[in-house]
Amino acid sequence: MKTIIHRADSRGFANHGWLQANHSFSFANYFDKDKVHFGVLRVLNDDIIAPKMGFGTHPHDNMEIITIPLSGVLKHRDNMHEEWQEVLAGEVQVMSAGTGVEHSEINGSDDKHLSLFQIWIIPNKQNVSPRYDQNRFDTKERKNKLQTLVSSIDEDLEGSLKIHQDALISRIDLSKDKSFTYTLKSENHAVYVMNIYGEIEINAETLYTRDALGISETEGFEIKSKEDSEILLIEVPLL
Q1: Residue 37, annotated as binding a ligand
Q2: How distant is the alpha carbon of residue 179 from its chain centre?
Q3: What confidence tens digit (pLDDT) does each residue in 60-69 have?
Q4: Is position 113 annotated in a ligand binding site?
Q5: Residue 164 assigned as binding residue
Q6: pTM of the predicted model as reported, rounded to 2 decimal places
Q7: What does DSSP assign to residue 141?
Q8: Domain boundaries, the chain
Q9: Which residues of the chain carry a pLDDT beneath 50?
Q10: 58 appears as a binding residue in the annotation
C-alpha cells in the first residue's frame, strides 16, 4: 500500500472576507507542485461562504463538478436552467461542464454561513453535452455502512448521481470503535480519504478533522474510528 498524508493545516488557504477557502490541491493563487492532483481528482475545496454572498456568473468546460453542502443553503443557477436551484445540506449536486457551462453559486441564507465541499474530476470524455443533476441522500443509510453518492454514467449503480469518469464518491459515518473495510474497484484506482469530522485510523496513520490520506497500490484498506466520525471517500483512476 502506498499512502500520502495531507494534514488539514497544510492545505492552501485564502481569506476573501466573504469566502474562507481551504484548497487540498493547487487552485487559484495557491500552487504546490506536489499537490496539483490525485489521479483524476483535480480540486477539493472546503469553502465557508458568508450570508447572501457567492460566486458570480463564470464559465467551465470539460470538467465534472460535484458540490456537497455540509451546512446551510446553496443556490445555483446556470444557462441550462434560468431559475435558481436550491441545494441543501444532505443533498449532492453534479454538473458535467462538457462543451461549456456558465453558472452562479451563492449562499441562499440571509443570516447563516454556508459550508461546502466542491470537487472537480477530470472527465474521461471530452466535449459532452452539459448536464446537471442533484439528489438527496438519507444520512441513516451511511451509518456504519458505505453510501455511494456519485458513480460513472457508464455504470448501472442505482441511486447514485452520474459523472463522465470511472470514479466513485462515497460517505460513511462510523460510530466510535467501529471499523469498515473499503475495497477498491481495480489496481488502477486510488482513494482520497477526507476525514470530515472526528478521528480515524488507516494503516497506522491517525486522521483528525479535515486531515486526508491518499491511498493507492492496494486492493483495500481498513478504517477504524477512534470517535464518532464522518468520512468522505473519492475513488478515482490514476493518471
Answers
A1: no
A2: 22
A3: 999 999 999 9
A4: no
A5: no
A6: 0.97
A7: G
A8: 2-237
A9: none
A10: yes
